Amino acid sequence: MKNPAASPGPTPHRSRRPEWAGRNYVLLTAATIVTNLGTHGALIATTWAVFESGGGPGEVGLVAMARFLPLVLFLLIGGAVADRIPRHRVMVAANALNCVSQAAFALLVLSGEARIWQMMILTGLCGTGQAFFNPAAEGMLMSSVSGAQASRAFAFYRMAMHGASIGGAALGGALVAFVGPGWVLLIDAIAFAVAGGLRAFLDVSGIPERAPGGGLFADLREGWQEFIGRPWLWSIVAQFSVVVGLIGAVESVFGPLVARDQLGGPRPWGVALAAYGVGTVAGAVLMTRWKPRRLLFVGTLCVFPIALPSAALAVPLNAMGLAAAMFVSGVAIEVFGVSWMTTMHQEIPEEKLSRVAAYDWFGSTALLPLTTALAGPAESGFGRSASLWGAAALMTLVTALVLLVPDVRNLTRRTHTVESGGGAGVAEAVLSGATGPVAGPGSVSGTGSVSGTGPGAGSGSASADAEGALRRNG
User: Fold this and answer.
1) DSSP line for 29-43
2) Is the pLDDT reported for residue 472 higher than 60?
């Protein structure tokens, strides 16, 4: 007969969510799904709104530049602000600005009275919102994840993000074709409102308050010291400054032009963007299982296929060939993206996340205003095909040069857990064989969305490795 005293008590209720999927993580993921559904349709809608207003390649480039210029100008300030006041407040305020600017843009387009200068102002406001949002969002995401499962958490987050991109691009391309760009822009405004509401419920009580600092410029100086002290970090950001700039020109200007003139309109370009999204989801699924030891080396090798869409548009391949090239590049960049975020998470102190992310985003997007503005003149001066082949060749060259940096080749994944010095939780531990303690473009990615590294990169310092804690990219 069983002893009642020895009988086990009631089985405690277990959450169906994995341990790394806390409340903030779930809210951030849900909000990102909503915004990506709207934003990826709006990117297509903006280009066709310019076309419908009588604009050509030059005007498309100017509107794109108007979005990217304030993004670059205000990123560093946005990063310092996000490390000084609660990040979720910065995110909600930025979402509100994006909602208002996109709603005004939509109403102008629906009225049939939109002018290029008006589009430039409204997209500029949207870019300003993103400048404050991106560093805060990266810091918030990094702070919401801890432990040895961080890379899996980032992979699932990116899977959800890119899955929404697939739907947004495919739906946006179809809606632009059937109901016009104005309605797609209005949907984007509504998505920003919903996402801002979700982010208002983020809990920041578990994030340690920052000690009073020496002011905005002192904060920026600290972030710069964190950034410049790691060769692997600034070299990859420099690489992505070129790569993201060229991608911006290809996707904002050349891709829609090729689709309009040679592929039959917005729908094939929407399908191509959706194929890229499918590739990123496939890459994220892969990274939930695969944990490459040399994070940045493997990640950088996977940047080479990013040049494939430029080459496909230069030929140009038919819609299916372009979609295939976009799919492969999507898989490859996701391997880089998860590797970069994992590196950032294990290397950058929590209290400096947003500032380091700001330098990452700033460097990665610095050339976007220039490359998008010059896309039209480049087509006129060199021809569309030659410009696209040149973009593919330059992406390949700068990626090859980054592999010459020892830190990029040698930095390795931590193999056991230690307490993180940055207050962001438990990091995946000691770098074995690393010469020093990633931004992917914001973008985000591109290298973009979560940047940073541990102290002492390139110095061979073991104590620097121990200080590692959090970061990066989008």
Assistant:
1) HHHHHHHHHHHHHHH
2) no
